[in-house]
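Student:
Attend to each token:
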Amino acid sequence: MRQLAGLKAGLLTTLVIVLAGCAGVPSSSAPQAIGTVERPAPANLPKPTPGMDPDVLLREFLKATADPANRHLAARQFLTRSASDAWDDAGSALLLDHVVFVETHSTERVSVAMRADKLGSLSDMGVFETAEGQLPDPGPIELVKTPGGWRIDKLPNGVFLDWQQFQATYKRNTLYFSDPTGKTVVPDPRYVAVSDRDQLATELVSKLIAGPRPEMAKSVHNMLTPPVRLRGPVTRADGGKSGVGRGYGGARIDLELLTVADPRSRQLVAAQIIWTLARADIKGPYVIKADGAALDERFADGWNTTDVAATDPGVAEGAAAGVHALIGGRVVALDGQRSDPVPGAFGRTTDQTSATLSRNGHQVASVVTLRPGAPDMASSLWIGDLGGEAAEAADGHTLSRPTWSLDDAVWVVADGNTVLRAIQETASGQPARLPVDSAAVSSRFPGVIAELQLSRDSTRAAMVINGQVICASVEQTQAGQFALAYPRRLGFGLGSSVVSLSWRTDEDIAVSRNDAEHPVSYVNIDGVNSDAPSANLQQPVGVIAANPSTVYVADPRGVMQLSISGAEGVQGWLDVPAFMAGGAMPVMPG
């Protein structure tokens, strides 16, 4: 850091000061829920001192913006009164790294132009999203000398937050809301800055009551909507205020004005609270009160995660179905060191080009392609029981790899841009082909949708468009139709290299790439990407299929599996001997 010192009075000097930082984005944890509970300021936040040079003061100001409490009171200490009165700090904060200050300096006043890399944004709800590129010129920042030292006298509206301070101050936690069917819970990651661990549970439950991020409002149900509120802070199960959720203390959540009455809805209330707290390492038992009485008398002494296991967001329901692949156009099952075609239509047909098992592993959806690569190429979607016969559900010149929703519908993309949903009609027992409104996707990200895969909870769709990962919310209208809404790009660091994708969990996606150095990577729903091991994979890699415990990918030799071995838990790619055949593709529930 270049310091400003020894300047003669009246001398006009231009200086460039760089705030170097680490541009590494947190891969699995790191941002805060903003301003819902009274809490002490983070201990590591700086304060202005009389001897600070202008560049140091600006750097410390960017760090102080990490605390949003009381309208960024910690940061306002670096401003003059008039600048504080004029500064509008509402809305999202931009997260900056490699900040460069270009200063025009005189004895009593400094004018500063700021340049920086933009790494992401943090909303006032604590929603973090990655970004890339240069910060657009925000306009000049001016500092004046006051009796207390240099202070910022003019600054642009909005909040700019130092990336390293953000990483030091904020921690990633996940809220959970109910999916529309009530079968599971849906993750909504938030970044929270709570320095007192005993206040974290109160913060998270308060945010549950405040509701999901805007783009999820029509994709999930919140069983804790207003007028529900907390009667007081979350405490230990015995009412104590310290040690909440630690050891055997448990947690007591006291709600009031809860309007849901039926047992199933109350079970979902408990599921939202329990998975939110349990995933934040706030341990049970969870004593949940509603207007002074137990939420459910069966659990008056406290709930545990086993009591809401049916909604566990980490369960891969179809894992018991076994491991399958497409070899020679047929669906085969792994049987020890060999593979055998499955009984029925999917094991007989030899021109299948993609396939996916249903969420429970009992059914198959596959695409049959005739005359592949020819001008009159034709594709058809077939759905049926694993080991049974199949019925045709859709057709087109091309069809993407199928994906199953939580309500047992099969989604495909026909001819590169028509999203279809096929579901069995109750009356006829035959598949019905229904369009999905994807106008929001095509208008913002025009191009061929090479792949579309639904998250296990079916509230999000991840797509490959022009080699990029695009994620959209899945919304259902009152008329029962479906739409893809709020599309956004994930994983800027992946460039345009993505070939195929698969959800590992409802928060995390595995992708295969045409990048020789990083043939497989991960990206989470915040947009943060990281790389998987690359050793023992050959290019080009193709179809990828994943679940919470493993990842499979096709390379020119056959199907490879990501394996953990050794005391250090080192990951590497091993071949699946029974699936080592050119053109083989992994087939899993998804």
Q: What stands out?
A: The chain has eight helices and 37 strands. The first strand starts at residue 13 and ends at 19.
